[in-house]
Design brief:
This protein is about 45% helix and about 10% strand. The protein is an alpha/beta fold and about 375 residues long. The strands form two sheets. An eight-stranded parallel β-sheet has the order 3-10-9-8-7-6-5-4. Helix 5 packs parallel to helix 15, helix 12 packs across helix 13 and helix 14 crosses helix 15. About 50% of the residues are buried.
């Protein structure tokens, strides 16, 4: 696969994805918000962390296994929830689930998936479900119940989008909902015939354009139509009481995603959450947000060891995973990295992205003299 795609790292897959996708879809995958200082900050914060390796430790055998929620994973990595993956590849959500299952890694189904969660769950593997709340809350609760019925182990409630993020590029490109056709984006689509045939063509043959698949049929908006009232996500009225009610309703693990302040992590713990994801949504929500890797140490200080602390936003190398673990994270999630693989080559492309991250993690551990995940600690940072 590596030779076939000519992709030796995540940046190579990114370049391949970019070439394959129409510009508007590429921008949706890649871009941040407003002046996009947050994306650079996420990367700069990782790059500013350096290692102080140990030598002569006998690193012939590197064990990358760890546990999350009491169960083993082969690598401290999970696939983050990403909506609209179905625009990057035919039934992209299913491809993500399949590749994660193949690698033995947890996959987080997005509320904004474009195929039913039942179809995604057919891929098997360890599943988590990410929740956005529709204005009509009963719709969301019905999906939450379905997710539990499908065996999802954890409910991830995303908290960092209280309002719609300011994605000015969508207003320019017309690639929003409803999708606005104009001469520029029509030309853009025509210039990407492989995507047109391989993604949109296959949808046309199999019964239609992707929509918000988790809503009841009568409320589903196609990407070309406006969402009906009630079927819009609404979070500006979400509060701790509502999350507490979700805690009471959901029998599995509850994780709050998008926590950057230690006081909120404390509150999550007090409420009975099993974990938090320290995340700035890949710099797709608030441009001026602290990098999540910079926010991690204070959160570890407050709740580390008492609940699962996961991290995402900006992970592009195995060394980033090791840095997050050295600062106390239990597990890392990757959003764009698997999506680059998806857009570059479907299930095989995602598998390749995950294999790259695995190999890089293993190599970094060996370079540091860390033979197991337990041996990765702050002493190895310098
Ligand atoms: C295209 C795209 C769609 C996303 N959709 C969702 C979503 O539906 N729900 C959610 O909680 N987070 C969503 N996210 C955020 C990711 O879960 C994750 O927090 C972020 O991608 C991590 O940063 P990274 O892309 O640098 O790895 C999305 C991210 C991307 C790139």
């Amino acid at each position: 696969m590596a030779g076939e795609l000519g992709c030796w790292n995540i940046a190579d897959l990114r370049a391949r994805a970019r070439a394959r996708l129409p510009r508007g879809i590429w921008e949706y995958l890649e871009r941040g918000v407003e002046d996009e200082t947050g994306m650079a900050r996420n990367r700069a914060a990782f790059d500013a962390i350096t290692f102080r390796p140990r030598v002569l430790r006998g690193v012939e055998h590197i064990d990358t296994r760890t546990t999350i929620f009491g169960r083993e994973v082969p690598l401290p990595l999970a696939v983050a929830p990403t909506g609209a993956a179905g625009l990057m590849w035919f039934e992209g959500d299913r491809a993500l689930a399949k590749a994660a299952a193949g690698a033995g890694l947890p996959f987080t189904i997005s509320s904004a998936s474009t195929i039913d969660i039942e179809q995604i769950a057919e891929a098997g593997g360890r599943l988590w479900f990410q929740l956005y709340l529709w204005q009509e809350r009963e719709l969301s609760l019905a999906v939450v119940d379905r997710a539990w019925g499908l065996g999802c182990e954890a409910l991830f409630v995303t908290l960092d989008l209280p309002v719609t993020p300011n994605r000015e590029y969508i207003m320019r490109s017309g690639f929003g909902t409803p999708f606005r056709l104009d001469h520029r984006n029509v030309l853009d689509i025509i210039a990407h015939p492989r995507w047109l045939a391989g993604v949109m063509g296959r949808y046309a043959l199999s019964g239609g354009i992707p929509s918000q698949a988790n809503l009841p049929r009568h409320l589903r908006a196609k990407v070309t139509g406006s969402a009906p009232p009630g079927a819009l996500f609404k979070h500006d009225n979400l509060d701790w009481d509502e999350v507490a009610r979700l805690r009471d309703r959901w029998p599995g693990r509850l994780v709050l995603k998008g926590v950057l302040h230690p006081a909120d992590a404390e509150r999550a713990l007090a409420l009975g959450a099993d974990g938090v994801v320290v995340s700035n949504h890949g710099a797709r929500a608030l441009d001026g947000s602290i990098a999540s890797i910079a926010a991690l140490p204070a959160i570890i200080e407050h709740v580390g060891g008492r609940m699962a602390v996961m991290l995402d936003s900006g992970v592009r190398r195995g060394s980033d995973i090791v840095k997050a673990l050295a600062l106390g994270a239990d597990l890392v999630l990757a959003g764009r990295a698997p999506l680059y693989g998806l857009a570059a080559g479907g299930t095989a492309g995602i598998a390749h992205a995950l294999a790259i991250l695995e190999a890089e993690t293993r190599r970094t551990m060996a370079m540091l003299g860390a033979r197991s995940i337990a041996e990765i600690d702050r002493e190895l940072l310098g």
